[in-house]
Design brief:
31% helix, globular, 24 strands, 519 residues, alpha/beta
Length: 519
């Protein structure tokens, strides 16, 4: 019966140039349930939720709330109806503080004067209530992706929304933060809030959702009760075929050192101490070395220094025997460094360029792609078309598509295609499968292992413990800017890694101390 549902999206069709993103989709959300929305990258999940949030208008279809027809022309209408959304790519003002972002648009005021203390008190209370620890005065551009995620969730709770849309909420969180978020979502549902939860992570769907609706290539496949459906059945509904969940790889056979880091220190933007403190390690050709750790322990700054995005303030970085500590990004690129960055929008793509232009960002100056300073457009398009087909990058207009208009997962696939196809000596990979579906994860993991087997040195930074265990040959754990543990992957388990990640154990002693293993 219609009144059982707090939200009904009936026969929704939404088109973009060259693509029907939603093709006659019906989705029904019960009050107080956690309803998962599952589908491959580009299946139309975010588009459907953007229709519900008023960011897009459907060509066909209706939305009902509590059985009544409603018109949602913009996000303000959605907010007035009690609908809130945490977007996959956060909608935050980077130069504003946490508190300013949370209250933006609903500023408490008296006689036109901003009541910041009142807002702060409410934010602090909500963050304590739901375990979403944030510094209200921190500037958004200075905090980690995981922290920004918390700000988005607090923004929704601050507005007292009753229908909460989470678009890939765990994509940038650590395993501990994910468990915390799961508890928060269950608590919210128990309080009577209704949650729509977009994710690619099948184990999360099994752990938390009551029902799951599956989309494939813009079409509705079905809605199932999660407790009665296996992970294998869900993945087959989503991808249309059986999926391998573990990476098949031979034992590594490391050769010469490709990357050598010696006593590297990198300053922090947030505090006076260094974010990376005298770190030393090396990565050899033919091995995957993974930096594991909870977000915010210096991994990002370490990668920024290695790739040239930030200056280091001590120590040396050597690539293929050359000191590149002060080299430009192009010099590093020419020496054979490829980089799949954690923030695909800030560092991975020029969003208003076409897909073809993005595919040659580090190579457009090569003779293959230009002559006398003029780009060979047809050659670039041909090259881009090849990568799009090889990596199954889905976009409305192929190489002509603007990067901004693509789904997050397909943007990620485009970056992975570009960086791996350069045949690097060193592949620096940060959160490579963030926001990707199981089919795409399976493919990208195979590509990274293939790079290793072809003789590349791979430095992987991942917050996903199962990805760390699945892909790595050697694991380094980072805590508070230092390497506190080093392991062969077959000699450690997730529980043990967790102790090192939280700082409870270390086998790399501080200067003048013994390690826990020696004591």
């Amino acid at each position: 019966m219609a009144q059982d549902y707090i939200i009904e999206m009936l026969h929704i069709t939404k088109e973009f140039p060259g693509i029907i993103a939603n093709d006659d989709i019906t989705l029904q959300l019960k009050k107080g349930e956690i309803h998962a929305l599952l589908g491959e990258n580009g299946a139309g999940k975010s588009t459907l939720m953007s229709v519900l949030f008023g960011l897009y208008q459907p060509e066909i279809g209706e939305i009902h709330k509590n059985g009544e027809l409603v018109k949602i022309n913009n996000p303000n209408d959605a907010n007035n109806l009690g609908i809130g959304m945490v977007h996959q790519h956060f909608k935050l003002v980077e130069i504003f503080s946490v508190i300013e972002n949370i209250m933006l648009g609903v500023e408490p005021n008296k006689y036109g004067f901003l009541m910041k203390k009142q807002a702060r008190d409410k934010i602090v209370k909500l963050s304590e209530q739901y375990g979403l620890k944030v510094d209200p005065d921190a500037i958004i551009e200075d905090i980690t992706v995981g922290m920004q995620q918390r700000v988005e969730i607090l923004k929704m709770l601050y507005r007292d929304n009753e229908i909460l849309i989470f678009d890939e909420p765990t994509a940038s969180l650590t395993p501990q933060e994910i468990n915390e978020l799961m508890k928060i979502m269950k608590k919210l549902a128990n309080e009577g809030k209704s949650i729509l939860f977009i994710t690619h992570k099948l184990n999360e769907i099994k752990a938390i959702s009551d029902r799951c609706t599956v989309l494939r290539k813009g079409k509705y496949i079905g809605t199932v009760n999660t407790s009665e459906t296996s992970i294998e059945e869900l993945s087959e509904m989503m991808v249309g075929r059986k999926v391998e969940f573990t990476v098949k790889k031979e034992k590594s056979n490391p050769k010469d050192v490709v990357l050598n880091i010696n006593n590297l220190s990198v300053p922090s933007k947030i505090h006076k101490n260094n974010a990376v403190k005298e770190v030393s390690f090396s990565v050899r050709a033919g091995e995957i070395v993974c930096i594991a750790g909870i977000d915010g322990n210096g991994q990002s700054e370490l990668v920024y220094a290695i790739t040239g995005l930030e200056k280091n303030n001590g120590g040396d970085i050597e690539l293929c025997g050359k000191n590149i500590s002060n080299s430009s990004i192009r010099t590093r690129s020419k020496l054979g460094m490829s980089h799949i960055p954690e923030d695909r929008h800030k560092f991975g793509l020029v969003l208003d360029y076409s897909l073809a232009e993005n595919m040659v960002l580090q190579r457009y100056w090569q003779p293959k792609f230009q002559k006398n300073g003029f780009l060979k457009k047809s050659v670039i398009t041909e090259y881009s078309d090849k990568l799009i087909e090889q990596y199954d990058v889905r976009s409305g207009q192929g190489s002509k598509t603007t990067a901004r208009s693509m789904s997050g997962g397909n943007q990620q696939k485009a970056i992975v295609a570009r960086e791996i196809d350069r045949d690097p000596e060193l592949l620096v990979v940060v959160q490579p499968t963030r926001g990707l579906d199981v089919g795409a994860i399976e493919y990208i993991h195979k590509q990274i292992v293939a790079e290793r087997d072809a003789g590349a040195a791979v430095l992987l930074v991942s917050l996903e413990l199962d990805e760390v265990m699945n892909l790595s040959d050697r694991i380094l754990v980072m805590y508070e800017g230092e390497i506190v543990g080093e392991f062969e992957v077959d000699k450690v388990d997730e529980k043990e890694l967790g102790l090192y990640m939280s700082g409870a154990k270390r086998n790399k002693p501080k200067r003048g101390e013994q390690s826990d293993e020696i004591k």
